[in-house]
Every structure is written in C-alpha cells, then in structure tokens.
Amino acid sequence: MVKQRKYVVKKHFQGVPKRDDFEIVETELPPIKNGEILIKTEWISVDPYQRAYNSRYPVPYDQFGYQVSSVLESKDPRYPEGSRVVCHQGWCDHSVVNTSEGKSGDADSSAVYKLPDLKGLSNSLGIGAIGMPGATAYFGFLELCQPKAGETVVVTGAAGAVGSIVGQIAKMKGCTVIGFAGSDDKVEWLEKELGLDKAFNYKTIDVLKALKEAAPKGVDCYFDNVGGEISSQIISQMNLFGRVAVCGSISAYNEDLQNTPKASIIQPSVVSKQLKIEGFIVGRWLSRWPEAFADLIKWAKSGQLKTREHVTEGFDKIYDAFVGMLAGENSGKAVVKV
Asked: pTM for the complete prediction?
C-alpha cells in the first residue's frame, strides 16, 4: 500500500485563504486497476484560478491543481513505469489516476497527458510555460487578439505566469508592448530581461496618464489578467476595432462576493470604438495544446522566450506558495518542488 498526503479544503475562503482553511490528510491508496496508473508528484502548480474557483465546490474537497508526476506503477501501456505525466490531481504527493477520464480540458478537469519532450528544459515547465499557463497565453492572445506587427499591446499581470509569456509573444509578433505589474523589481525585469517597450508599477503611478504617454496613438490589443478599474482605464484608451482577451480578474479574487469592487463603466468605449471583448478558458483549445507546446519549446530553446520560475520547496510549503502568488510575490510561474 502507498500512502497519500493531500490538502483538503475544509472551509470556503473568506478574503485571503487562511492556513486553517486547509487540512493535510493522510490516506492509503488502493491497488491500481486496468487503465490506471500510480504516480508520485514531483512539481505542483499554484495558480489564481485555484482561488477563483473555490466557491464552486461544496466543502470539504480535495484541492485541485496541475502537477508533473512520475509513473511508479502502470496498467496502461501508454504510460509506462518511469515516464512522466501532467495531470490535475491537485495538492497531493501520490495518487491513482484513471487515464481514460477527464478529457474536457477545463481548468478543473482530470485530464492526464504525457509530459512533452522538453528538449532538456526543466520538467517543471510542464505546469508553466509548456503547460496550461503557456497554452493560456498562446491561444488567448493569438486567437482572440490576433495581433498584427506594428500594433500596440497592453498586458496586465505582466510579470505573472501567463502575462510574462503574452508580452514576449507580442514582441515576437512585432508589436509595441506595454506591461503593468506590482513592483519596481518586476518592472525592471519586464523591460531589461523580457524586452517590453515600457512597463509600469501600477501601485505608484497614475495609470491613465502613464498609458497616454506610453501609447499616444492608443491601444490595439489588451490582455486582461486583473480586471478592476485599471482595466476600465486601459479599455478607455483603445483604438477603433480593438480586441480584448479577458483571462482573469485577480484584483477581485480575494474580495467578498457580496462586495465585489466597482469599476468605471466601459460600455461607452466598447460602443464608440466597436471593441471586441472575449473571455475564455483555455480548455476550449485542448486538442491544439501540442501545437502551442511545440512553438513554446522552440522559442524557449532558442532564447526568444524566457521562462522564469518562482520555486518553493516542500510539500508543507504549498500553502505559503499559494498565498504568496496571490499577493504577487512571484515573477514568472509559481511552482512547488515536492
């Protein structure tokens, strides 16, 4: 018998998730059956959607999330012992996976797939730049914004797991890229290492004034990770037929659902500029994820794409990594090495 340790959510989060909202539970896993694999977790992902989706499930529930794992025992020839998989088994150190279930590709699905051949890159990228966050940036930006060379692109949450990839792809496509992040260190990283044309610490500047100066001819594409008033201000500066890809609203995830923050209305800009605004969940392109991974691996190997990670070590530190990510302490992808 193999013992499993897992994080169970006991209480729905009120504001910032608290340590006692979780309980670490130890259980014995059953022997695997045909079509199942026993896996050992190596890397665990902490992401904003884990906060956003908290209220969807009755408590208690096992904390969901992506992980990279090694196969210890297999009764599915597609996943031999010693191979590695990416799956959505959550915050646990071992698990049994039915490899035929969960092909929807939604963020809360139980889909499992082989870790792509990362060509010598770290396996941790399988839950980052070459995983769900990378696919989110790739398809959300390229499919919905459809950028053209010479256009101006704005990204909020620009130093995060998704935003940092969006900004770099936009530069590869010949765009002028402006990023907003939450610290001066992140701004320096975005400009000096990732090559964004301009980055701002939204906490210390007048967003509207800074944007007008950085993009005097307006904004063509906006990749929105944060929502809130900053998004209303950016949308007000968009050009005719501008495109907005709405990925998330992390500015409000820790707020009480009964007191959702208010922001300026955007309808006048949407109508007068004839804007296209579309929200998305990356699972809609699940069948095309390998297409994204092939490009992302190629770009990472060539140095065109920089894949910074914020690594926390230890199963007992997952909670700390989670709340740190929600507070914006990470630059690039927040991952936990188990």
From this structure: 0.93
